[in-house]
Amino acid sequence: MRHSTEIQTLLQALLRSSEQEKIIYFPIRHHSPACAWHIQQLIRAEKPAAVLIEGPSDITELIPFILHAKTRAPFAVYTTYIPAKVADETLRSDPHRFAGYYPFCDYSPELVALREGAKVKANLQFIDLTFTDQARESETNSQIRDLQQESYLQRSKYISLLIKKSGCRNHDELWDHLFESSFLTLETTQFIHNVAAYCYMARQDSPTKLLQSDGTIARETAMAMAIQAARSQITGKILVVTGGFHTVALPSMVQQSLKEPTRPKKTH
Question: What H or E segment, with its residue span, contains residue 39?
């Protein structure tokens, strides 16, 4: 385990890297009203030229429908994938299917980012791997998945210790105690730093091999490459809105020379 002084040094470096001149990284918890409110304040103040959001890149084309005046939250984008080798087996009663949903409500940080970004005429884009590519990274799991699940934060030993020390009952209650109950008393920059520190510490006990095997690294590589592309193409500030677990890894990745991750052969 890293020494506390080393962790503090690394965390300070992370916070500095998250304040790049052109790119603003905003770590969120999905469906957090506190995160949604601070994103609203940030976009209104900074008026970014682009807003890049964690979410399958191929649903970018659905943004006009997500923002349509007749679209009312709550709603979800639902996506499916069936490998061609299975789809052709018409007699098979239970083909190996993959399905995922991406839910939105009025206080979802991602939806607020889209709505506020549209108001300042920002370029809006989802930057994660497509669901098909995500499914290929873990084809042993054919269950319907929430594409905003936060399993790593829920399993973190660091967060488990915080839960015990704070007297909270679970991860949700701890988050409410630390972030939802007092978000109006903090400046947005301080709120971002607090969430980043929380997620950074939570990530420390996640083995790199596990992050590689479940597709997390591949997803983060895709997001980092999308940020690099936007940085080279767009004049003005870029706001990056991702789950905090990913946010703490992205600034350093964006500074690297990245290559497309190797993926299984296309089968659909």
Answer: helix 33-46
Question: Cα(37)–Cα(174) distance, rounded to whole angstroms?
Answer: 19
Mean pLDDT of the chain: 85
Q: Which of 6-10, 118-122, 147-151, 249-253 has the lowest mean pLDDT?
A: 147-151
Map tokens 């701890």 to a residue: 174
Model confidence pLDDT, tens digit, residues 160-194? 999 999 999 999 999 999 999 999 999 999 999 89
pLDDT tens figures, 94-114 = 556 778 889 999 999 999 999
Angle at 40 between CA 252 and CA 216, to 5 degrees: 35
Does the bond joining 74 to the residue before it have cis omega, within 30 degrees of 0?
yes
**CA distance linking residue 40 with residue 255, whole number of Å:** 27
Separation CA 137–CA 131 (nearest Å): 10
The DSSP code sequence of 94-145 is S---EEEEEEE-TT-HHHHHHHHHHHTT-EEEEEEPPHHHHHHHTTT--SEE
- The rounded distance, in Å, linking the Cα atoms of 54 and 223 is 8
Domain ranges of the chain: 4-74+105-136+150-253
Under 8 Å between Cβ of 176 and 225: no
